[in-house]
Amino acid sequence: MTSRARVHEYRQRLRAQGLRPVQIWVPDSRSASFTAAAHAQSLAVAASEHADGDQGFVEALAWDIDEAGE
Length: 70
What we know:
Elements: H1 3-16, H2 32-47, H3 51-68
């Protein structure tokens, strides 16, 4: 059986279970342009007049996540 046939049968079994294929495109976090944009955004957030409040908000969310795991 060819790999194409195996993939077809696999997808048919999934469809029979009520599933459907979905393709999602996300930013490539390994690319230099992503790294540069993320760095520029972090500098902008840090320089904001709301930086302390924003950081407090993020830390409050992180605390909730940590507490949920215990």
